[in-house]
Amino acid sequence: MQRNFAGGLRHCSELNGTNFYFEQRDRVLNLQDYRRSLDNLSAQGAYNPETRRPWSKQDADARWAQVQKDAVTHQANCAAVASLPFLEKKLKELESGVPVGAASK
Length: 105
Fold this sequence. Notes:
There is one protein chain. The chain is mainly α. It contains 4 helices and 4 strands. It has one domain. It has helices at 2-9, 31-44, 57-82, 84-95, and strands at 19-22, 27-30, 47-48, 53-54. The strands form 2 sheets. It has a two-stranded antiparallel sheet with strand order 1-2. A two-stranded antiparallel sheet has the order 3-4. A hairpin with a 4-residue loop joins strand 1 and strand 2 (27-30). The longest helix is centred in the middle third of the chain and has 26 residues, at 57-82. It is elongated, with a radius of gyration of 20 Å. The protein starts with a helix and ends in a 10-residue tail after the last helix.
C-alpha cells in the first residue's frame, strides 16, 4: 500500500470520499469537479490519449467509475494508516507473550 499510495498519504486530511488522489499530477481532485471535466471532454470530443481517439460518453463513464473507486480506496488507505499506531501497540502486546485478554482476568 505504501509503495502504491505514498504520494497520497500527505493528503489524507483531504481524502474523505469526496476527493481522490490523482497520482499523475500529484494532487487531490474533487470528484464532482472531475465529473464536470469528463462531461466537457466528451461533449467537446477532445482527444483522449489513453484511447488515442476523442473522448466518448462511454470513456467518461468508465473513467468516472474508476475515480469513484479510487476515492473510496484512498479514504480506506488513509484510515488504515491512521490506525497503524494502535495496531503496532497491539502487536507489541502480542509479541510480549501476554495472552490476549489476560489483563482482564
